[in-house]
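Example complex used in Figure S2.
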Amino acid sequence: MKSASPQHVFRALADPTRRAIFEELTRQGEQTVHALTSFAGVSQPAVSKHLTVLKKARLVRHRRAGRETHYRAQPEALAPMADWLRAYSTFWRERFDRLEALLDGMEP
Amino acid sequence: MKSASPQHVFRALADPTRRAIFEELTRQGEQTVHALTSFAGVSQPAVSKHLTVLKKARLVRHRRAGRETHYRAQPEALAPMADWLRAYSTFWRERFDRLEALLDGMEP
DNA sequence: ACAACTCATAACCAAATGGTGATGATTCCG
DNA sequence: CGGAATCATCACCATTTGGTTATGAGTTGT
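Predicted assembly (216 residues):
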């Protein structure tokens, strides 16, 4: 499961429409472009373009079925962003350090 | 410690130069605009504009000291992004659930 | 006092971005 | 078969974005 560059992921999720599409796919599961279009409130070409950007970030996969294309979220692709967060948020890191300590066998 | 909107945070961190500035402030601590300018490789006004964006996302704070302005990272402001990640990454959630479980199990 | 320094803001510009309607390739169905 | 449906791509447009240089306000050291 190769990841896209962090830049692609950060960029892709910076747009609210794109984030909404990704959230919808995460919550509701696989959706056609048609369904996503009526959900997103923008034109079908706009949705297709957003899906292309999400695809480049590997945040979604697609599956052709007849004339429909079904998209589904690929949350593992959030890993680069999660890794970045863990590295640069001391706030966040503390919680992980506690986990590490626990797992390592509670060294005094 | 009120947080900015997730949108502000996502937007602010989508730009690589801005992310680099934030990373630098996190790693090296407080820095003047001058220092950040020589680090970032863009003009001083560009740095100032980036800092304004980061400030609106509450990712940095500033402190005036004479003619210098010192900026420092405010990693707690990453919370909206971290919350979002936790909510929409099943991958991530699993690791968290394991942490929660561990902590809860050792509670008595 | 004044020259140098630090920084924010203004004015401007090219490129990227997010949107649109039009079109065409496929696919499905009556 | 032929019309309707689904979707990607094209051509285009307005706005935003990230950068620049110029400038001005405040601060410091000589």
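Chain B has a mean pLDDT of 89. Helices of chain B lie at 6-14, 16-28, 33-40, 44-56, 79-88, 90-105.
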